[in-house]
Design brief:
The protein is an alpha/beta fold and 398 residues long. It contains 14 helices and 14 strands. The strands form three sheets. A six-stranded mixed beta sheet has the order 2-3-1-4-5-6, with helices on both faces. Helix 10 (306-319) packs parallel to helix 12 (373-380). It is globular. It starts with 11 loop residues before the first strand and ends with a helix.
C-alpha cells in the first residue's frame, strides 16, 4: 500500500464470514474485482484471516477481511473458528455468505447471533443462486452468484448502504482550533524512533491541523525553548510525545495548553473518560500486582522501548512496589483480564475504532481499570490535570 493512502485503521473494515465451501472467498473476489482470496473446492482453503487495504467503489478506502470457515473441525479447526470470531472485534460491516442450497445452518445462525449482539451491520448473501432456486429475501439479504456475477453489483450497493453513518466525522485536535492558530508538536527522535519518518499518530495529527488551516510546527524537546522564543505570538497548544511530558511541561508556560498525542488519541478512538478513571489505580498498587501492557501493533523493540522499559520503570519508581508486567501486542488481547490490577494500552493508532472500543469494553465488563500510555505518564509526572485542558469536562473530574 502506498504511504499516501488512507491508514488501515482509518478505513471501513468489511469482513466476509461463512462455512467452508459456501463460496465466501469467491464472493470476496467478485466484490473486489481481484483475486484477493485463494479459491478451491478443498474444504478449509482459507486457514487464516486475510486482510487487504484497497479502494472499493462506491465506498472508497476499505479493509476487506476474508475469514476461515466457521464450521471447521478438529483441534486446529477450532483455532481457525476462534480466529474468525475474533475478526468481529474489528468489523464495521459483516457479510455472511451462505450456500444457497443449504440455507442458514446452525453455524450461520450462531454467528448471526454474535453479530447482532455486537450491533454490527450485517448482510446475508445466498451464494450459488445460479444453480439453486433463489431464496425469498428480506432486508439486508441478497441472492448472488460469484460464478456468473449475478447481483454482485447490487451486493456492493447494499454494502455501501450499510456504510452510511460510518463516515469518519471525528477529529484528533482540529475541532479545538481556529484557522491560523499555532500548534507546536514535540517529537523526540531517539533510538526507538523509526528511521526516516514520523510515527502514525504524529503524521495524522499534522494532517488534521493543516486541514483546518491552522499552523503546525514540529520540533524536538531540545529545540522547544528556542522555538517558543522565536514565535511572535504564543501558540494555542503544544502537543508532545508522552515520554517527553516532564521536560516539555517545565518549558511550556502555564498559560499555553499542553497535552499529548496519546491523550488526544484516547479521545479520538477510545474513551478518555475511562482512561482517566482507570489511571488512578496507579495510586493503589501493592507488591505482587500484575499490570498488562497492551499494544495494538508489533514492532522491533529497542533497549529503551516505552512499553517494555520506560513505563514499567516509571511505575516501579512512582509506586515503590514490586510490580509484575505482562505484555501483549498486535491482534493478541488477553481473554482473562481479572488477574490484572491495571491495563495500560498504547494509543491504538494501528487499531480501528471498533477494535479499540472492544478492548476497553472487555476491561470495563470485567471490572479491570484500563488507561493508556499518555494518561499514565501524565499522572506519574504530576501533570495529568494540566494535560486534560483541551477536555474541561473531564479535567473537572480530577
Amino acid at each position: 500500500m502506498s504511504l499516501n493512502n488512507t491508514p488501515s485503521a482509518e478505513r471501513l473494515h468489511i469482513a466476509f464470514f461463512g462455512r467452508r465451501n459456501a463460496g465466501k472467498s469467491s464472493v470476496v473476489n467478485a466484490v473486489t474485482g481481484q483475486q484477493l482470496a485463494i479459491v478451491s473446492d478443498v474444504l478449509g482453503t482459507t486457514t487464516d484471516p486475510v486482510l487487504k487495504a484497497m479502494e472499493l467503489l462506491p465506498l472508497g478506502p476499505v479493509v476487506i477481511i476474508d475469514t476461515p470457515g466457521i464450521d471447521d473441525t478438529g483441534e486446529l479447526g477450532a483455532l481457525r473458528v476462534k480466529r474468525s470470531y475474533q475478526m468481529l472485534n474489528k468489523t464495521d460491516i459483516a457479510v455472511l455468505v451462505v450456500d444457497s442450497a443449504l440455507g442458514l445452518t446452525p453455524e450461520d445462525k450462531a454467528l448471526l447471533e454474535r453479530i447482532h449482539q455486537k450491533n454490527i451491520p450485517c448482510i446475508t448473501v445466498y451464494n450459488k443462486s445460479d444453480i439453486t432456486p433463489p431464496h425469498t429475501v428480506s432486508d439486508n439479504e441478497i441472492c448472488v452468484s460469484a460464478k456468473t456475477g449475478m447481483n454482485i453489483h447490487e451486493l456492493k450497493e447494499l454494502i455501501a448502504a450499510q456504510a452510511k453513518g460510518h463516515e469518519n466525522t471525528r477529529h484528533i485536535v482540529s475541532d479545538m482550533l481556529k484557522p491560523d492558530d499555532i500548534v507546536i508538536l514535540v517529537v523526540p527522535i531517539d533510538s526507538a524512533a523509526p528511521k526516516g519518518r514520523l510515527i502514525l499518530p504524529q503524521q495524522q495529527t499534522i494532517r488534521d491541523i493543516i486541514d483546518n488551516h491552522s499552523v503546525c510546527m514540529v520540533t524536538q524537546p531540545s529545540e522547544l525553548a528556542m522555538t517558543l522564543k522565536a514565535l511572535s505570538r504564543k501558540p494555542e497548544m503544544v502537543i508532545t510525545d508522552s515520554q517527553a511530558f516532564a521536560e516539555v511541561s517545565r518549558l511550556v508556560p502555564d498559560d499555553i495548553t499542553l497535552t499529548s498525542f496519546s491523550i488526544l488519541f484516547a479521545n479520538y478512538k477510545g474513551d478518555l473518560r475511562l482512561a482517566v478513571s482507570g489511571v488512578t489505580a496507579l495510586n493503589s498498587l501493592n507488591d505482587g500486582d500484575t499490570i498488562l501492557m497492551a499494544e495494538g501493533c508489533t514492532h522491533h523493540r529497542q533497549c529503551d522501548d516505552i512499553g517494555t522499559v520506560k513505563i514499567p520503570g516509571l511505575i516501579r519508581k512512582y509506586s515503590g512496589k514490586d510490580i509484575n508486567f505482562v505484555w501483549t501486542s498486535g491482534t493478541e488481547f488477553a481473554d482473562d483480564l481479572k488477574k490484572y490490577k491495571l491495563i495500560i494500552h498504547c494509543g491504538g493508532c494501528m487499531l480501528n475504532e471498533r477494535e479499540m472500543k472492544y478492548r476497553l469494553k472487555c476491561a470495563e465488563d470485567e471490572g479491570v481499570p484500563i488507561t493508556n500510555y499518555g494518561t499514565a505518564i501524565a499522572l506519574m509526572n504530576g501533570i495529568l490535570k494540566r494535560s486534560l485542558a483541551p477536555f474541561p469536562d473531564i479535567q473537572n473530574l480530577l
